[in-house]
Amino acid sequence: MIEEISAAACIQRSLRQCISNMAALLYRQGHVLETVSVPHRGLDRSAIQQLSQASGEWATCQQVLECSEAASYNESGRFVLTSLGRELLFDMFGSGASDYA
Asked: Closest Cα partner for 31 from 74, 92, 101, 79?
């Protein structure tokens, strides 16, 4: 039981670190958090490629987010946060970070 809690805490820390890194990388490349928090928006392949070229951290963060199901691709094939990812984003950055209509 303690090992499960410890593993869950480690995973959540890793997710939070990836979301924090993702937010910084998005900002540096001229994106806003709503780019990934609004389900019908998201990052297209070109934007993901630019982020990957700008920082070696992007690919790792993207992989962690996808494997943990905190991010996926929407019906348009764009990279977006899932409800789990948006919830973590909201917890970390406040109410405006992941709000959408």
From this structure: 79
Burial 9-21 (b: 16+ CB within 10 A, else e): eeeeeebeebbeb
- Cβ-contact 32, 47 below 8 angstroms: no
Neighbours of 60 (CB within 10 A): 12
Tokens (6 digits) for 69: 């199901």
Cα separation of 43 and 80, whole Å? 7
Residue 74 has pLDDT above 90, yes or no: yes
What DSSP string describes 63-91? HHHHHTTSEEE-TTS-EEE-HHHHHHHHH
**10-39: per-residue pLDDT in tens?**
667 788 899 999 999 999 999 988 999 999
Phi then psi for residue 69, to 5 deg, are: 65, 25
